[in-house]
Amino acid sequence: MNKVERDEKESEDDYFKRKIKILEKTATDDDLIIIDNFDVEFDEELENLFKCPAKFIITTRMDFRDYNYKQITIDRMSDIKDLRELFYSYNDTEYNEGETDYIEKLIEYVDRHTMTVELIAKYLKNICDEPKALYERFLEKEQTRKIEHKVMESICESLLYRKKRLEAEKQKIQVSKMQLYERHKQDEIDKEAYLSKKEDLSKKLKNTEQEIAIITDKIKENTSSGHNLNVDKLREAVTKGELVLDWINEVIDRIYVYGKDKVEIIWKFEKGNGKDG
Questions:
Q1: What is the SS3 assignment for 32?
Q2: Angle (CA) 64 78 63, round 5°
Q3: Which residues are registered as beta bridge partners of 264?
Q4: Residue 67, pLDDT score
Q5: CB burial class (10 A; 0-12, 13-18, 19+) of residue 233?
Q6: Is residue 238 classed as helix, strand or coil in its secondary structure?
Q7: Distance CA 238, CA 257 (A)
Q8: Is the four-CA dihedral 41, 47, 49, 53 of positive or negative sign?
Q9: Whole-prediction pTM value?
Q10: pLDDT digits (tens, 9 = 90+) for 127-142
């Protein structure tokens, strides 16, 4: 709301109530208030806002019919001709037949999203880029995302498998320690041999627990929302067909990329060929 600033000591709730009071006094039946992207399931202040003497249009991806609001469902534009007209209203460049085909491919790629079509039109006009080149970059980026997802998924699967084996090993060591103690208790082995074997088992147990902790941290790291692979290097892998990932070299030796969806991962800590397609 223009010229209505929030005071430093004013709470967010008080600031909202003050704006509502201003709207109640100044708005009329001839005023139209548009609220865009109201993508929440419920807002307890919505009814207070509607008390203002104005008309409202709200765009949302949520379904508000249960609240008895009049709702109109608007789907994507169905006629490709309308979308072409939208494109050319922002880009008056004369394209040949082949370029026009790629413009339609771009429109379909973004699922006919009108704002994105507008942005593509403006981009092609201002940057003087070719529709084919932009479309191919979109496909390359999509391919990179698929590879990234496949790599991250494979890393986590292998780490979980390794963790499961280590936890089984930890359990065996703990059982061995108990059996060792029982043997010593029954005088089957002397104290010196008992203490020596106990120390060896304790070291193995400690090392196993440390490795489990490291792998647990790696799993969290690779599944966290903020963790991403190096997209530029993945793009290079798509082009060359092979990539060495230095930043996860504790886990992976090499990654081979074949075509769009097949990825082969060579794991460092697995015996044999360690392949995962």
A1: strand
A2: 5
A3: 256
A4: 78
A5: middle
A6: helix
A7: 6
A8: positive
A9: 0.46
A10: 888 999 999 988 888 8
